[in-house]
Amino acid sequence: MTSIKEKKHKRTLQPHSLAKIIGIILIIVGLIFLINPTIFFIKLSFAAILIGIFMILLITEQTVPRKISEAQIEGNLSFIKKMTKELKLDGNAVFLPKSQTLKEERVYIPVKKTNNTSIPPINDELVFSKALDGSIQGISVPPSGLNLLKEIQTEISFNDSTMEDIEEKLQTFVGMNILKSITLKKIPNGYKLELEHYDPCSTEQSTCTQYPCSACSAVITPITQAAKQKIHVLEETKKGAKNTFLLKIGEL
Predict the structure, then answer these.
(1) Whose CB among 32, 123, 153, 237 lies 3.0–4.6 Å from 101's, allowing a Cys bridge?
(2) 197 and 215 in contact (C-beta within 8 Å)?
C-alpha cells in the first residue's frame, strides 16, 4: 500500500523530474519496439528514443546555473557584513513574512543577540530601525536569496505551502542543482534545517547567522512563507559542505 508520504511526494514531483521519468520510459519503449524490427516499429523506436533523450538532456537542464546563483549576491553579502560591523549589530537574523506593510519578505538584524528580540513595525521603505533616542535598533533588508527564489518560483510556488509539505517542495533546489540535499526536521522548540552544498560555503559563520548566503536564504524564505510567522536563526554550524541551521518559529 502506498504511504501518505509517497502520495505527497507524487503530488509535488517537479516538472523537471517528471520530464526525466517520461524520457526514460520513452527510451525503454523505443528499445522494446526494436524487439520486433518491422519498418513501422523501427520508426517508432527511433522517434521514442530521440524524444526521450531530448527530455532528459534538454528539458531537465537546470534553470538557474549554480555558479551564477552563487556569484550574483557576493557584493551584497560583503556590503551587509560591513554595515553590521559599522553599526555594531550582534543579533542573529529574523526572517519576516509578507504582511500588510511588507510586499515581500525581509531579514531583520537586531543590535543585540537576546532571547527577547522585539521586532519593531517594519515596512517596505524602512531600512534602519531607530529607538526614540535615535539609536539604531536594527536593520531591515531583503533576503540575499530573494532574486534566486523568484527564479525558482517560475518552477513551483511556495505561497500555498504549509510546514507539513514544505520540505518536499524544497527539493526543487536539489532538482535544479542549486543544492545537493535539503532536510528539515521538527525538533523540541524549533526546526533543524540541513543544507548540503556542492562545495563548502565560503561565507563566514558570523555572517551566516546574521545574513545567510543566497542559497541558504532562498531556502529559509519559503519556510517563512509556509510558517506565515517570523523565523529566528538561533544557530548555524558548518561541517564540510553541509550547513545546519537551528530555527525558531514565532516568538522566542
Answers:
(1) 123
(2) yes
